[in-house]
Write a sequence for this structure.
């Protein structure tokens, strides 16, 4: 199992599962983060505690603990 927080900058992946609380799932789904969506890692914060990704032309920031709940395939 690979999780989003382990990817590198400019790496593409397909979301295979979102293993988060109902509240977080709702927030992620509203941005297009759902099973089957293609994403790209854009940047990591200097402190390495958050990352920026692009999903379906939407750019969003995630904390790494949130990204760790998203399973992906390369």
């Amino acid at each position: 199992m690979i999780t989003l927080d382990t990817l590198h900058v400019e790496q593409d992946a397909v979301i295979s599962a979102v293993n988060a609380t109902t509240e977080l799932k709702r927030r992620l789904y509203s941005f297009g983060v759902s099973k089957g969506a293609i994403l790209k890692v854009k940047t990591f914060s200097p402190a390495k505690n958050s990352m920026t990704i692009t999903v379906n032309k939407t750019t969003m920031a995630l904390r790494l603990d949130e990204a760790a709940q998203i399973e992906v395939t390369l």
Remarks:
- Residues 2-73 form a domain with the SH3 type barrels. fold (CATH 2.30.30.90).
- The CA atoms of residues 50 and 63 lie 4 Å apart.
